[in-house]
Amino acid sequence: MYEVKASLLKNRLYITIGKVFSKEIKDISKDVEKVAWELRPGFTCITRITDLGDLTEHESGQIEKIQDYLLSIGMAKVVRVGYQPGTQALEKTGKEVGYSAESVSSIKKAERILDDFVSGKS
Q1: Alpha-carbon distance values, 82 to 10, 12, 75, 91, 102 (Å)
Q2: Is 59:29 a contact under the CB 8 Å cutoff?
Q3: Gyration radius from the chain CA atoms
Q4: How many Cα atoms occupy the beta-carbon half-sphere of 116 within 13 Å?
Q5: Could you tell me the residue ranges of all domains in the chain?
Q6: Tens place of pLDDT per residue across the chain (122 aa)
Q7: CA distance 122 to 117
Q8: Of 53, 62, 113, 121, which has the fewest beta carbons less than 10 angstroms from its beta carbon?
């Protein structure tokens, strides 16, 4: 289960990831590329993890490619919310490509952090 959407007004990408299966990784990648392409450089991202089991080597590699892609098109900041083992797994893959994220306990906190970042308050 996953969802990828964007707010053009906020210039923000929203990714929700639940239990991911190897066969879904390509679909996630395609959807992220399609949706993120609409955003301007400097965009922010909230990644909500509802469930994420152990990642296979292939899945980890594909997630690293997604993270690298987002950095390459100008993502400025990302905040993760949710299931702690999942946020830790994404932190591990992110380190491989220089992708760092802050983890918080709620979408509301994530929105506030990114709104403050965009307005220059943080």
Answers
A1: 21, 18, 21, 13, 12
A2: no
A3: 13
A4: 9
A5: 2-109
A6: 789 999 999 999 999 987 766 677 788 889 999 999 999 999 999 988 887 667 777 777 888 888 899 999 999 999 988 856 555 666 666 666 776 788 898 999 999 999 999 998 76
A7: 5
A8: 121
2-109 adopts what CATH topology?
A: Transcription Regulator spoIIAA (3.30.750)
Q: With CA atoms as reference, report the closest residue to 62 among 105, 114, 25.
A: 25
Q: Could you give the 3-state DSSP secondary structure of residue 59?
A: helix
Amino acid code (one letter) for 79: V
* Block residue for tokens 């797994």: 89
DSSP β-bridge partners for residue 7: 12
Euclidean distance between CA atoms 30 and 112, whole angstroms? 28
Q: Which of 102, 57, 69 is nearest to 113 (CA)?
A: 102
